[in-house]
Design goal:
72% helix; elongated; 0% strand; 2 domains; mainly alpha; 165 residues; 9 helices
Length: 165
């Protein structure tokens, strides 16, 4: 049985719909008497997985659009329409508010569809000490083969002093 308090909640499906509609986790938590951190953990650990699993099932079955995703897309359309209406009236305050909500909707859709990924680290292998050690071992192994040693050194752009280690 899941330890997630949101998954075990009697109104689990309604909570998920509220989150997907763009309601803040703190607001949803308060409404359903949950800890806001528990709601945030649920979104990160379970809701995204459930959305992806449902999407995969529907694609395999050749079914219609993902209902949770469709709800989020519907919300996006409504916010865009409100923004257009506010701009047409010249109501910059309302248009600015809509722009903020639009950004939130786009972020939600990005997270649901996997378009927004967690930042990844970039590793420069050439500057890593392990790479230098590997280069030295390769050059040592090629010492009996001077032509191969020079070819490998050129291909790897190894400085002359390492080439003759």
């Amino acid at each position: 049985m899941s330890r997630c308090t949101v998954c075990r909640h009697a109104k689990h499906a309604l909570i998920d719909r509220q989150i997907l509609a763009g309601r803040p986790a703190a607001e949803v938590a308060q409404k359903f008497n949950l800890n806001p951190r528990a709601v945030q953990r649920h979104v990160a650990a379970h809701l995204r997985q459930a959305v992806q699993a449902e999407a995969n099932e529907r694609v395999e079955a050749g079914g219609e659009a993902l209902s949770l995703l469709a709800t989020a897309e519907g919300l996006l359309g409504r916010v865009q329409a409100m923004m257009d209406h506010a701009e047409a009236r010249g109501d910059l305050r309302a248009a600015t508010g809509c722009a903020k909500e639009l950004r939130g909707c786009l972020e939600l859709l990005g997270k649901l569809t996997g378009g927004i990924a967690a930042p990844s680290a970039t590793i420069n292998l050439v500057q890593a000490p392990e790479f230098a050690a590997l280069q030295a071992r390769i050059m040592m192994a090629l010492r009996p083969f001077p032509d191969a040693s020079r070819a490998v050194a050129q291909a790897l752009a190894i400085p002359q002093e390492i080439e003759h280690v």
